[in-house]
Specification:
Layout lengths: L21 H4 L2 H14 L4 H19 L7 H17 L5 H17 L23 H9 L9 H19 L4 H5 L6 E2 L4 E5 L5 E5 L2 H13 L18 H14 L8 H14 L4 H8 L4 H7 L4 H12 L1
């Protein structure tokens, strides 16, 4: 691809005097590949990179079908049409519209093309994250069961799945953090784990004695060696997709009508700590939030709980 400076004037005219479509001027496949490599270098999670890749690929496929994209004005019009298409035809959420806008703008900025600098960023909806109550969490984890007479491979898989649910809830981990957790970063004596979170920030999280027993039992049972704690039967790290589907399966088995995801378990962890009187700044540290405002959103609890804590503090 020939690099086109921002000062380059559009439309671009070929030798026959025809206006060139943007998809003929830019090698978008190569540009996307370079951008995704940069995200990986910046230590973005594989899940985030896949999401960005999908958003950009689908957008470029949409552009290729448009006939009148020759200059900035027509490009911006096509982008607005695309957002309109997502809202009207695909009926996606407002938060997804926000994500699409941010991702596409960042992509063009990375390539020194300020084609969307006049496009505003839509607002996100601030819906409170859902959480499970303590009984629902207990039912979810207990939905994973096995018998000692089961096949060893079956026992290993069930034990691993139970450990995933346990750690997501009892330690408040993000699913990407759990996938990348290595055994050497676990201190069994102190019952702590060193976690590499967002922005390459390390933090220390805790796990309880039941989780410790389960970790040690799982490590003693599994048949493949790996530096990673959570692995597949082939000894490879699990995908976030597998974990999401696994949690949904056990949520259905436990009869939980709410949507159950890794994020819901993380939010439940924070909510239950707050409900039991743990200081919000401690919760902030355990979750790895740089802003207390973010933690306050995660730990939104019902008014009865707030009243109870308030009355207790006033006694």
């Amino acid at each position: 691809m020939d690099n086109l400076e921002n000062s380059k004037k559009f439309p671009i005219i070929d030798k026959e005097g025809n206006k060139l479509h943007f998809c003929k001027i830019f090698n978008f496949d190569e540009m996307i590949e370079d951008y995704l490599i940069e995200l990986e270098i910046r230590n973005y999670s594989q899940n985030t990179i896949k999401t960005y890749s999908s958003i950009l690929t689908i957008f470029i496929e949409y552009l290729e079908k448009q006939e009148d994209i020759y200059d900035e004005k027509h490009f911006q019009r096509s982008f607005r049409r695309y957002i309109q298409f997502l809202k009207r035809d695909k009926e996606v959420s407002q938060n997804y519209i926000y994500l699409v806008t941010i991702v596409i703008k960042k992509f063009f900025e990375f390539n020194d093309l300020n084609l969307l600098e006049n496009i505003g960023t839509p607002k996100r909806t601030k819906s409170l994250p859902k959480s499970l109550n303590e009984k629902e969490v207990e039912n979810l984890i207990n939905a994973v069961s096995w018998r000692e007479t089961d096949h060893p491979k079956h026992i290993e898989t069930k034990m691993r799945d139970k450990l995933i649910l346990t750690l997501l809830y009892s330690s408040g981990l993000r699913v990407s953090e759990l996938i990348n957790l290595t055994i050497r970063n676990i201190d069994f004596d102190e019952r702590t784990m060193r976690i590499r979170g967002k922005g390459d920030k390390d933090r220390i999280v805790l796990f309880d004695t039941e989780a410790k027993k389960l970790i040690l039992k799982y490590l003693d049972t599994r048949t493949k060696d790996s530096d990673y704690l959570i692995i597949s039967q082939r000894g490879k790290p699990l995908s976030s997709r597998y974990i999401q589907q696994m949690i949904k399966k056990y949520g259905d088995k436990a009869g939980i009508e709410k949507k159950v995801t890794p994020h819901v378990l993380r939010h439940s962890f924070a909510t239950h700590l707050l409900k039991n009187g743990v200081d919000i700044r401690v919760i902030q540290q355990l979750l790895g939030h740089s802003s207390l405002a973010t933690t306050q959103i995660y730990t939104s609890v019902d008014m009865e709980t707030i009243k109870s804590l308030y009355d207790k503090a006033k006694k």
